Structure formats: structure tokens, C-alpha cells
Amino acid sequence: MTDLTRRDALALGALLGGSAALAGVGAAAAAPSAPGVPLDTLPSLPVIRSRNGVLRTTLVATPRPTRLIGQVTQGLWTYNGLFSGPCLRAAPGDRIDITIRNEVSVPVNIHYHGLWVSPSGQADNVFVEAAPGESLQSRLTIPRSHQGGLFWIHPHVHGYSNEALWRGLSGTFIIDGGVVDLPEYRGCRHRVLVFKGFALDPAAATPTMLPVDQASAELVQFAVNGALNPTMVMRPGETQVWSLANTANDGFLRIAMDDHRMTVLAEDGYASFTTRKVREYVLAPGARVALAVTASTKPGAYALSSLGYDNGQFGQWLPQTLATVHVGGRPRTPVRAPARIMPVVSWLKEEPVKRRVFTLSASFTPETGPVFYINGKAFDHQDMHASFDVEVDTMEEWVVRTDPSLQQGGVVEGHPFHVHVAHFAVVGRGRWDPATGEATSYHAVEPYGLEDTAQVDAWEYLVMRLKFHKFTGKTVLHCHILLHQDRGMMGVFRIVKPGAGGGEDEHHHH
Ligand SMILES: [Cu+2]
């Protein structure tokens, strides 16, 4: 991006970021602002709510130009013309009935990232798709026992995920309840901040999204609810609950804020066992976090920043001011965070019924370009057979490790690992040597809570425990850098009833 367009974008963002970006119908009304205190310009997200236990709506995947940082921008694909997407909202026990109408030029479907729901049939099934011009029906029931929190939706058709997300196809999904309903935070303002990367084409005469294959990390900026550097108003000492989602296709954020206190209350939509104060928080692509943010006692303007993140040669994510927090007005009394929220899940202490190892690696040759592997196999859209079976309601221990060996053109980089329809607890980690296959270090981890997306650095391994609850069917695990997923770093497995494993595989050929 040239300096000129960048300056223009910043100026426009400041002028239009709040009012023009989205017509907000969120729960949060504009904060009353004292004289001399700037207006709150964080756009709220348009909410689509369930009624009488059913969330019925149509999401149109549309290529029409739409607003991004206050300017009508070409080259976007969005749900219903919203760059940060609509915010679906339902309660545990609700039924979801969504029509996806595909008006873009690639196949789409819908994945409910982080939800513990069925991966089969018309539910959270990534193996169905709507071709361009077609529609598909997505139907599922949120279990009554489901966690409340921030989840999200996006297309998940193998080979097309990266472009679909980059251009803007994603939205959020709030399940009622969770940490915002804790007695401590009743009456506190709750904000949802959806971070999404973008880069405009410096050669285009009008605002145009850069094609995904030209959007290298150092060109990408992050919009917040579709706005650039919006203003958020807080009182001195005030505590607010912020639910943050990184809905980028591959960008990393390292969240920090000067002179404010941040306490992690929930990760990936799951309330923490143990809360913790943090100076910074790495939000990998796909990840979410709920933070209790207590403002400085000193009035003034503070930056909510990303400090930048080094994920290797192709992942130099730059520092950026994401939003500006204006602290002013009459002081408030800070809320003291509870030390513990969720009981530690009992299955963590069980003996795993199975241990598996997943090795994430890459190669590059001029003939093939970059290819990404799990256990030496690059996932192929033509061959959707499940490579292993997991018994439902049993606990497994998985070791996920990265092999950046360079002999075949591998790349030194980390991979954010994501599993569908379940959360896991990271219980150990260390370094290993791919040449020998041996661990060179290990330390046990006392998990703060459960996650659905976890970064595995180069030469690192994570030991995780997970349990697939209730639902059976075929689903996937993959890297959430979606270029890696599209080019092979994905695996298919089946969740089966006890004793049903090892049978004939269903094959789908497209
Ligand atoms: Cu990856």
C-alpha cells in the first residue's frame, strides 16, 4: 500500500469508521459522553437472533461491493454485504436453520467454528457444498448443555477456504451465557471486537481488495468490526468485558494495551478454569478470547495495539494500532476478576484410550509449489476417506508437532492447529528434533481452560487431551493458516460409536 492510499484510508477511517460502516443493532447503546470526551465509534455488529428457539435466516454470499473502513470497496465477498459479517445469536437448545445462497464464483458451505454440534448431515458438515448459483440448507441443534461464548462461521470447502475468508466471508456466532453473565460482570459493558485483515490494491483507481495471492503479511492491516482504528470510550478504572475474534484467513495478532489491566476470562468461547492477568495475548487466526479490561485511572488516549507477530518467513505480521481507547469522565470502581470460573473437566485426569501423533510439515519444489502435509500426506479433495476413527465420549491424547526440515524446501514457521466439534486442553509442550524424532525438552502444562485452536511453533510439540462428546460423524483437523489447509494440511477422521471403528469407510468423490 502506498503512503498516499494509507493516509487516505486512515483519514477516511477516522471520519467514517463508526457511523458509516454498519448499522448497529447490537445490545450496546452509544455510551453517554462527557464534554470533551470523544464519541464511541466502534461499530456494533448487526445481530440476527433466534426467536422462539429457532434461528432461521438466509446468508447470501455476495460479491457486490460493500463498505470496508468506511469506503465502498470492490473485490470483496461477504455474507449479506458485511465485511465483518453478521452476528448470529442463539441460546443453548435452539435450532439453527440457515439458507446459504451462493452468488460468488467458488463453492461455499458453512462451518460453525468451535461449536460442539453434529458434523454430519445438514449440520456442521464441511463435506457438502453449494456450487456457484446454488443454495444449501444448514440445520442443527445447539445442545442444551453448550457453553455460552463467542464462536464464528465461515466457508470450509477444501481448496477455496483461503480466498473465501480473505475476501470477507465470515461472521460471528454468540451462544448466550458464558462469562458476560458472571455476577461480577453484570452491568459491565460488553463489546464484541471482530478483527479481520485486509489490504487494498495500490494500483486500483477505486478502493479494491488486493487478491489473496498478493496479500503478503507485511501489507495486511486489521479492521475492527469493519472500521479502521475506531474509538472506544471508558471511564477511569472502569471494567468492560471484550470478546475478541480473529477471523482472518491467516493473520496473527498480539494484543496489548498500555496502562490497562487485562484478565483472560475465556478462550475460544470456553470459560477458563483459572483466570489470569496478561500483558499481551497472541490471537492466532481462528482464535477468540474474552478479556476483562480495566481502564487506566489516568484520563487520556491509549492504543489497543497488536505488537506484531513473527510466524516465520511468510508470517511477518506488523505492529498496528487496532483501536484507540479514550479514558475520561467520572471514575468507576474496577471489578475484581474471579480466580476460577469453570470446574476443571474431569476427563483430563482419565487415562487416554488412545495416543496419536500428528506431524505438520511442508515442501516446496518449482513443479509443485508449496505443499503442506500431516503425517507426510497432503490432503486431497478427491479422496475424502477418513484416515482414523475416534470413539465418541472417550478421551484421547494427541501430540501435534511441526517439522520445519528444510531439505525439501520446508519453511520455518508455526501452524495454528484446529480441531472441529471439540475443544482440547494443552497439558504439555516442548521442543523436538525431527532428525531423530526425539523430544529435546518437555514441560507439563496446567491448562487454564479448553481451546479449539492452538499455535504450534516451529520445532515445537504440544500434548493435548480431547474428548468428542455425543455426536458421531466425519470431520476434520487442520492448520488455520488457510493457504496451508487448502494445500494439504488437513486430515479427515470419523467419530464413531464404541466398537464401530475399523469398518468400511465411506468415500466421497466429487
Ligand atoms: Cu499451517
Task: Describe what you observe in this structure.
By secondary structure, the chain is mainly beta. The protein has helices at 3-16, 161-167, 482-486; strands at 47-49, 54-62, 66-68, 71-73, 78-79, 87-90, 95-102, 111-113, 135-141, 149-154, 171-175, 190-198, 221-224, 231-234, 239-246, 253-257, 261-267, 270-278, 280-283, 288-294, 300-306, 309-310, 316-317, 320-327, 354-365, 369-374, 388-391, 395-403, 415-419, 424-433, 438-439, 443-444, 453-456, 460-467, 473-479, 490-496. The chain has three domains: 3-178, Immunoglobulin-like (Sandwich), CATH 2.60.40; 183-327, Sandwich (Immunoglobulin-like); 346-496, Cupredoxins -  blue copper proteins (Immunoglobulin-like). The protein has three helices and 36 strands. The longest helix has 14 residues, at 3-16. The chain is globular. The two termini are 39 Å apart. Copper (II) ion (CU) is lined by residues 415, 479, 481, 484, 489.
